[in-house]
Structures are given as structure tokens and as C-alpha cells.
Amino acid sequence: MTTFPTLQTPRLTLGQLEVSDIPRIMKYADNPNIANNLRNLPQPYREKDAISWLHMARQGFDNETVYIFKLGLKETNEFIGGMGLHLKKEHHKAEVGYWIGEPFWNKGYATEALRAILKFGFEELELNKIYAMYYDFNPASGRVMENNGMIKEAELVDDEFKHGKFAAHIQYRLTKREYEHLQK
Amino acid sequence: MPEFPTLHTPRLTLGQIEVGDIPAIVKYANNPNISKMLRSVPYPYDEDNAIGWLNRIRTKFEQKKGYAFRISLTNEDGYIGNIGIGIKEAHQKAMVGYWLAEPFWGKGYMTEAMAAVLKFGFEELHLNKICATVLADNPASGKVMIKNGMIKEAEFVDDEFKDGKFLTIMQYRLTKDEYKALNNK
């Protein structure tokens, strides 16, 4: 792939993160309500963090290891969040990670975006497995996975020590076969 | 440099892997019945593999990131297998991995060794969680975990691709609280 892919959903356009998105990335990512739900989103979130994220996205695309999509509102292409596929090529699988700016929560955007990413991962990248994890205290993220027919395969108790407490990780997956079955 | 611990079980002694164990490691690891059960052991397995492994485990021990124990029958010095614990200090947890030489299978040795390593991990290293993984088509290894009261927490379908096949991996765990509950019975 030489051009970053663009994916369309009913309300969103998924495409390459642009330099012009940096102010909105900073505005939305600098939020402990988001950072708490993620493995390592720096807080406070500064311009250098956004630059580093863009760099990772560009580099990951160049060496075909990471596809980080901007989630943009269809009409304005305004940045509202990001969703990335992190490939483990030798095992034909990828992990999906995502976050949505708080003003855009509870509108089903992540569910919509994940549907497009699953399609891209299985049909374009020809992956065999796509999985995603969330902390047990963030069940809204789990619903995004469930809404897309993903299957819970792990409940990793006390998996991380975060903010002075142990947190559990829940993992959902879809294999290519399961994905194809859902499309029928 | 801290001293490497020695653990004792009814029939086994667990201690540091020595250079003198390399011939036995190569002899026993160079066995497709071993390598097909494990992700980290290639086949064929030669002296270079053993040296590389010894180097990794010694480095981890120096960094306090892991302990790899040789297993021998008490009163006999021969190497019959190994069990190791790799630590993620930030999360106070560890992963245990092991293999036993084929002539010593089916005697419950690994269940015994695992019990000693769990005790060491919780009581000496003060870990909060210890887990171990096993390939779905190696139920004998799963028994080692079940017999030690470990709880299945994951079944990672098609998680790895090895030798042209997708492998499903089961994960078992014990938390410190679960370990204490088992030992207070």
C-alpha cells in the first residue's frame, strides 16, 4: 500500500492523521477520563505527544506494522478520535486500540469505526485474527466489541497495576472464520 | 550478585542452571515432542540454542527479572527439566514456563515443581499474580496448573502461527488472594 487507505462508514471517514489535526488531538487527549481507560496515554498531553503519535502512525504505515486511522466526522472531517490496528505479522493477527474525544462519547462512533476496521483487517490485510482489550472498569469499550460480534476470550484478573490499584483486562477477539460467519 | 535460591519438594531439588547442564539440555530439548508443546524451543535444538538460552536467563536473573530453575531428582544430580519465572515488576506479576525431559513424563514431577515455584513467587518474591500458558493440545501441561489450583482465565484462539498452523493458547493464573485461600484450607 502506498497511499493511506480511506474507509467510509455512515457517519465517519477514517483516514490518515494530518498535522492539522494536532490541535484537536491535544484538546481531546489531554483528559484523564480518557487516559484512565488506556494503557499509556501521557498526561498532561502536550504537543510533543501528538507529534510522537503522528510519527508512530506514519512510520507504522511505512513499514506496514501499524495502521492508525483518524476518525473524522463525515461532513467536516473534524478529528473526533483515533483507532489503530497493530499488526503481529508472524502470527497473522492484530490488536485494535482506540479512543474517542469525550464530547463524542455514547453516540456509537467507535462501534461504527470498529466495523470498518474489522472489514479492512480481514478483507484487505487478510489477517486471521483481530483482538482488542479494555479495562474491566470501562465496560462501554467492551460494548463496542460486543456490538461487532467479537467474542470474549480472556478475563485477566489483576493484570496491571495502575494508579495504585490492580486492574483486570478483558480481551475480545474475532477470527477470520468467525468474521466470515458473521457476514452471512 | 544475590545468591540463586534452591527450592526443595518431596522428590525434587530446584536450583540454578549450570554450564555443566548444557549437554543434558541439548539432549532432551532436541525432541519434537518437546518443541511442539512450546513456543520458545526450536527443533532441531543444538548447543548454540542452549548457550543463547543460558545467556538470556543469566541476564534476567542479574536484572532480577527472572529465575530459571533446573530440576533434578533429590539425591541424583542429573538434569531432568526446568521451570522458570519471569517477572513484570511494575504489575507485581510473573509468568511461569517449563518443560520436562520426555523420560520423566507422567510422574507428577512438574506439578511438584510448580507448587514450589508458586510458593517461592508468592512468599519470597511477594508477587500479586502468577500465570502460565499452555497450548490447547497439550492437556498434560494444563493438568500441572489445575492440580495446583490455578484458574483458567483465557483461551486465546489462533493466537500464534507456528510451523504452518495456528495455535490456541490457554492461560491459567493464581492471584495472591487465591493462593492464600488455597493454603488456608
Question: Which keywords apply here?
Answer:
heterodimer, A: 184 residues, alpha+beta, Aminopeptidase, eight-stranded mixed beta sheet, 6 helices, 8 strands, 34% strand, B: 185 residues, globular
Unreliable residue runs of chain A: none
| Secondary-structure class of chain A | alpha+beta
Trace the largest sheet of chain B across and list its strands. Answer: 1-2-3-4-5-6-8-7
The interface involving the most residues is between:
A-B, 19 and 20 residues
| Order of secondary-structure elements of chain A | EEHHHEEEHEHEEH
Helix content class of chain A: 25-40%
* Beta strands of chain A, count: 8
Total of DSSP H or I helical runs spanning 4+ residues of chain A: 6
Q: Could you report the average pLDDT of chain B, rounded to the nearest whole number?
A: 95
Instruction: Supply the CATH superfamily name of chain A.
Output: Gcn5-related N-acetyltransferase (GNAT)
| Overall average residue pLDDT of chain A | 97
> Beta-strand level of the residues of chain A, as a percent range?
25-35%
> What is the count of structural domains of chain B?
1
Q: What is the total tally of β strands of chain B?
A: 8
The CATH architecture assignment of chain B turns out to be 3-Layer(aba) Sandwich
The CATH class of chain B, by name, is Alpha Beta
CATH topology of chain B: Aminopeptidase
Strand arrangement, major sheet of chain A: 1-2-3-4-5-6-8-7
CATH superfamily of chain B: Gcn5-related N-acetyltransferase (GNAT)
Distance between the termini of chain B: 38 Å
* Backbone shape of chain A: globular
Provide a descriptive summary of the structure in words.
The complex is a heterodimer of chains A (184) and B (185). Chain A is built from six helices and eight strands. Chain A is α+β, with helices and mostly antiparallel strands and 184 residues long. Chain A has one domain: Gcn5-related N-acetyltransferase (GNAT) (Aminopeptidase), CATH 3.40.630.30. The radius of gyration of chain A is 16 Å and the shape is globular. Chain B has one domain: Aminopeptidase (3-Layer(aba) Sandwich), CATH 3.40.630.30. In chain B, strand 5, helix 4 and strand 6 form a beta-alpha-beta unit. The N and C termini of chain B lie far apart (38 Å). Chains A and B meet through strand 7 and strand 8 of A and strand 7 and strand 8 of B.
